[in-house]
C-alpha cells in the first residue's frame, strides 16, 4: 500500500537509473525551482530545452551547477516542445514538463500524428493526493482536461489512471466511479454511466459504481449504510463525472483539507506535466515525482 508522498519519493530514489525530465522552454524560474529541487534530492536528471543564457542565469540564481543538467539551446518555444517530443519518442526523455510556453502550443505538438507522442485516443490528467484524513495515497481523474467526458472517454481516463497506479506499485487499484447516490437513477446520467462502466469492467482494476464519495472514502459510512464492496472505504481512484466536480473536489482537498497533490497527464508515450504557475512549489515537486514514477520505464 502506498501510504504517503514520502514513500513515493523513496520509490523513485531507489530506481537504478534517474528519470530524465525534459523541460520545454525551460527559461522559467518557477518551473526550474521544482526541477532543481527534485534534482538536488537525487530523484531526476534535468534536460533543459530553451534559451541557454537565460537558463544558465536562472540556474546560477538557484545555486545549481549547470553541469548537473543537460541544456539544449533553442529560442523558439514551439521548437522546444518538438525537441522534447523527439527525445521522448527516441527514449531519451522519461517525461515532459511545460516551461515558459502556452499549454495549447505544447499539446498541439504532442498530439501531432506524425511527430507527436500521443499513444491513446484520450489523454487525461491523474491527480494524486495525500490527505491527513485518509490512510493512503489516492487519485482523482479527470479534474483538468476532460470537460464533460463521454462514457468512452471515462473508460479511457480510467485506463490511463490505472496504468499510472500500476507504475506506482498498486497492483489492483480499487476504482470508485462517483455519483451523488449509489443506486442507478435514469434521470441522473452519471449513475447510469457508472453502472455501465462497472458492468463492462476495466482490465487491471476493481470497479465500483455508482458510489457516493463518502462510501468510497469512509469505511464507517459504508458500515452504517450496510454498503458492501471491496472499494468502499478503500478507494485508490475516484472517477468524477466532469471537470467541474473534479476541480472542486481537488481544490477542497488541498485548500480546506490540508492535502498535498501532484498531477500528471497520461495517454502519451511518456507522462506530461502541465503544472500551473499558480501551483505551490510542493505541488510542482510532487508532480515531477509522480510523472517520473508513472513513466514505468
Compact description:
The chain is 40% helix and 19% strand. The protein has 297 residues and is an alpha/beta fold.
Label the overall shape: globular
Beta-strand portion reads 15-25%
Percentage of residues in helical conformation = 40-55%
CATH architecture of the largest domain: 3-Layer(aba) Sandwich
**Total domain modules:** 2
> How many DSSP E strands?
11
Query: What is the residue-averaged pLDDT?
Result: 96
| Termini Cα gap | 21 Å
Query: Order of strands across the widest beta sheet?
Result: 8-7-9-6-5-10
Sequence of secondary-structure elements: HEHEHEHEHEEHEHEHHEHEEH
CATH class category label of the largest domain:
Alpha Beta
Q: Output the structural class.
A: alpha/beta
Largest sheet, if any? 6 strands, mixed
Oligomer: single chain
CATH topology of the largest domain, by name, is: Rossmann fold
Q: Work out the radius of gyration.
A: 19 Å
The number of helical runs is 11
Unreliable runs: none
Question: What does this entry look like structurally?
Answer:
It is a single chain. With 297 residues, the protein is an alpha/beta fold. The protein folds into two domains: 5-119 and 268-294, Rossmann fold (3-Layer(aba) Sandwich), CATH 3.40.50.10950; 124-260, Isopropylmalate Dehydrogenase (3-Layer(aba) Sandwich). 40% of the residues lie in helices and 19% in strands. It contains eleven helices and eleven strands. It has helices spanning 5-13, 29-40, 52-61, 77-89, 103-110, 151-167, 189-200, 213-217, 219-225, 243-255, 281-294; strands spanning 19-24, 44-50, 70-73, 95-98, 124-130, 138-141, 174-178, 206-211, 237-239, 260-266, 272-273. Strands 8-7-9-6-5-10 form a six-stranded mixed beta sheet, sandwiched between helices. Helix 1 (5-13) crosses helix 11 (281-294), helix 2 (29-40) packs across helix 11 and helix 4 (77-89) runs parallel beside helix 5. The longest helix has 17 residues, at 151-167. The chain is globular and about 60 Å long. The mean pLDDT is 96.
